[in-house]
Design goal:
Protein name (chain A): Exosome complex component RRP43
Largest sheet of chain B: 6 strands, mixed
Number of helices of chain B: 4
Subcellular location (chain A): Cytoplasm; Nucleus, Nucleolus
GO molecular function (chain A): identical protein binding; mRNA 3'-UTR AU-rich region binding
Family (chain A): Belongs to the RNase PH family.
CATH architecture of chain B: 2-Layer Sandwich
Strand order of the largest sheet of chain B: 1-2-3-4-6-5
CATH architecture of chain A: 2-Layer Sandwich
Largest sheet of chain A: 6 strands, mixed
Number of domains of chain A: 1
Structural class of chain A: alpha+beta
Number of helices of chain A: 6
Oligomer: heterodimer
CATH topology of chain A: Ribosomal Protein S5, domain 2
Main location (chain A): cytoplasm
CATH superfamily of chain B: GHMP Kinase, N-terminal domain
CATH class of chain B: Alpha Beta
Distance between the termini of chain A: 55 Å
Mean pLDDT of chain A: 88
């Protein structure tokens, strides 16, 4: 009976749990799903990571290529993110050009990179005006169970920390770039932006880390991206029910705690990695 | 309504001078709004904020494609066309923001299995573009007679490097600012419907900007009311 009630009246089913201050999967309203991260699993990429937030799985692969710097900023490189939501991850997506959700997610990641200054684009320049690194960050969702933005931000951060770029020198005689694959160095990651997503139910209740089902039933969503000094890189609230300033404050405090959790997890992972 | 009704309103009698002193400076640019200027859409509006101008047209409630049909409410669609070039990923992202804001206020349940399409064309961009788009969309929805539970307005705040707050920044001010925050607020309780930000800022600054935006939105809603009063009082 309970399963059919869930199919017929999903919102009522959810409300019964929310009244008791918990959710059907047993979590509390402010609790995140189990987060696991794995770095360096893709051998052919310059940097990679796999992040699992409960069932939501996102893999990020970063490839570094050469490119000419833009004419209006000759000492900057490029970071090009692309989020791919394929039919593999959810029944909602069809194959073909990226749908709206994928485009919005790509734009969101691009904004986070730009706003948080996670890497200085000047670090990617090899020779001003002639040669710079272009980092193509491909985020592929393998399983969409809600909260794609948090998983993508985390995957991107972990993969960028894993990227090793070889040393490049420009040979003055031939004007060609010489790549020294034996000498590799890590990128200089300046800040660690961490995203925390919330879903708003019935205009009043805020729950953290929504699953796909919860995202459908919610009346609004909110994503806060915070870095370690408590500065906000992004407050993404694409419409939905209204929030008061006080509710926003609660979200900020939750985002601060989440940042600490994620940072701790990442430090553990990178400490345990054997040096190449 | 016969012809187009034009209403202009100067929120501050003088034009914008230097940014206000520390704390919320409340000088918004000159507003103007024109409704019912296009004959084909069910509702249309042109909203001007300083030199930024957006034209909005609303078609609806109209027939919806079966693949997009929702059984118990109207399907809202927003199309944003930039001034030059083809629409890209950034436009899609803004369309999603505007669409979700409209979905929160439009009473879709009164028109199930229909579609309401909002088409926005950027005529000129001199800063605060998203806020101008939101205002134009709201005025066009009102002109089309789409039932809504509240009106909404867009307000942009810019924070420069020493923390001074500027409302309704011009394109130059946006470029030089450390952070640009755009909010959509509803008219009933001034709650935050939509927010999108660029740049780094602290939590306290966010609350400050939100408070300033809420005060500024009072001016915008007053302007909406006056312009609609002027339009309907003539008939």
């Amino acid at each position: 009976f309970l399963m059919s009630f869930r199919t017929v009246e999903p919102l009522e089913y959810y409300r019964r749990f929310l009244k008791e201050n918990c959710r059907p999967d047993g979590r509390e309203l402010g609790e995140f799903r189990t987060t696991t991260v794995n770095v360096g699993s893709i051998g052919t990429a310059d940097g990679s990571s796999l992040v699992k937030l409960g069932n939501t799985t996102v893999i990020c692969g970063i490839k570094a290529e050469f490119g000419a710097p833009p004419t209006d900023a000759p000492d900057k490189g490029y970071v090009v993110p692309n989020v791919d939501l394929s039919p593999l991850c959810s029944w909602r997506f069809r194959s073909g050009p990226p749908g709206e959700e994928a485009q919005v997610a790509s734009q969101f990641i691009a904004d986070v990179i730009e706003n948080s200054q996670i890497i200085q684009k000047e670090d990617l320049c090899i020779s001003s005006g002639k040669l710079a690194w272009v980092l193509y960050c491909d985020l592929i969702c393998l399983n969409h169970d809600g909260n794609i933005l948090d998983a993508c931000t985390f995957a991107l951060l972990a993969a960028l920390k894993n990227v090793q770029l070889p040393e490049v020198t420009i040979n003055e005689e031939t004007a060609l770039a010489e790549v020294n694959l034996k000498k590799k160095s890590y990128l200089n990651i300046r800040t660690h932006p961490v995203a925390t997503s919330f879903a708003v139910f019935d205009d009043t209740l805020l729950i953290v880390d929504p699953t796909e089902e919860e995202e459908h039933l919610a009346t609004g969503t909110l994503t806060v991206v915070m870095d370690e000094e408590g500065k906000l890189c992004c407050l993404h609230k694409p419409g939905g029910s209204g929030l008061t300033g006080a509710k926003l404050q609660d979200c900020m405090s939750r985002a601060v705690t989440r940042h600490k959790e994620v940072k701790k997890l990442m430090d553990e992972v990178f400490k345990s990695m054997k040096p190449k | 309504m016969e012809g187009a009704m034009q209403t202009e309103s100067k929120i501050r009698a003088d034009s914008r001078t230097e940014p206000g002193p520390r704390g919320p400076g409340c000088s918004l640019r000159h507003f103007a709004c024109e409704q019912n200027l296009l004959s084909r859409p069910d509702g249309s509006a042109s909203f001007l904020q300083g030199d930024t101008s957006v034209l909005a047209g609303v078609y609806g409630p109209a027939e919806v494609k079966i693949s997009k049909e929702i059984f118990n409410k109207a399907t809202l669609e927003v199309i944003l066309r930039p001034k030059t070039g083809l629409p890209g990923v950034a436009e899609k992202s803004r369309e999603r923001l505007i669409r979700n804001t409209c979905e929160a206020v439009v009473l879709g349940a009164l028109h199930p299995r229909t579609s309401i399409t909002v088409v926005l064309q950027v005529v000129s961009d001199a800063g605060s573009l998203l806020a101008c788009c939101l205002n134009a969309a709201c005025m066009a929805l009102v002109d089309a007679g789409v039932p809504m539970r509240a009106l909404f307005c867009g307000v942009t705040c810019a924070l420069d490097s020493d923390g001074t707050l500027m409302l309704d920044p011009t394109a130059k001010q946006e470029k030089e600012a450390r952070a640009v925050l755009t909010f959509a607020l509803d008219s009933v309780e001034r709650k935050l419907l939509m927010s999108t930000t660029k740049g780094l800022y602290s939590d306290a600054e966010l609350q400050q900007c939100l408070a300033a935006a809420q005060t500024a939105s009072t001016h915008v809603f007053r302007f909406y009311r006056e312009s609609l009063q002027r339009r309907y009082s003539k008939s």
